[in-house]
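During the no-cost extension, the postdoctoral fellow (Dr. R.K.) reprocessed legacy sequence entries with the updated structure-token encoder. One reprocessed record is reproduced below for audit purposes.
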Amino acid sequence: MDWLEIAGYRKQPKTSAGAILKATLHHSDSILCAAISPDGQLLATGSHHSTVKVWSWHSGELLRTIFGHSTAVLLVAFSPASKTLLTRSRAGTVKLWNLQNGELLKRLADVHRHESVAVSPDWQILAIGTTRGTIKLQHLNSGQLLQVLEGYQGDDISAIALSPNGKMLVASGLNAASGFCRATVTLWELPGGQVRRTFGSENYVALSSDSQILVSHGDQTIKLWNLQTGELLHSMQTGIRITSAAAISPDGKYFAVGCFDGTVRLWNLRGELLHTLDGHSSPVSAVAIGLLGETLVSGGENGTVKLWQLRI
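Re-encoded structure tokens follow.
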């Protein structure tokens, strides 16, 4: 047995047509977030145990463990150059790290524990969804407040997605006034900040790479919307409860959702189920897709991390 097997990095057989389970890694606690670096070399996972682990995608070697948070890590995001890492904890601290030496570069923001955070694909804007139903846009590096978006028909914002072209932002969440029912998904046009349209009531959202399709999901339903017209294109019943884990491929070919039965399900944007990746023995709590759409990482509530090679 070599060192990779000792570390838990084992070659796995093909488990689904078009998908190969390459390896299984292990974290110390539930995986809450994951990301693959734009250059495809690194993988980052954040856990309930408050640690962030950075791995080599190709070898599975653990390169670095970051101990800079005191509570669970809810977000990890690589910079476009794959040199720095943004993290956000449940306590609300948003930090920027040097991946070469693991040093803290900057404390970017302090947010309420119930406020959601997202970063634009070009790493220029940090979006913060507040408990007052507004979204603050600030410059990521300087911290300067750029804009406040209003018009959201709800209270807590649990998910934010920014379009790759930087011209749209969509948010979803809960409405406490309605007994914590799901609030209406709202789309803003940027930089003007006007509400362009609203969609159905789902908790989690993602935007396609061409900014044409909105993917929303909650419970056992996935919906695809035309962002330009507001038309509901497809509504799919999964037959199994979906977790908050979801990602859309950067090439726009498919999206992935994590499920409570331990599977990851891949759908194309025509509403067709492509693959069911069966590898976890616990609910899938994190999903991330590589830049070319050929690699996927899934994290489970039991701390396992699965690395997949895809052929969509």
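The longest helix spans residues 3-6. The two ends are 33 Å apart (CA to CA). The remaining legacy entries will be reprocessed before the final report is submitted.
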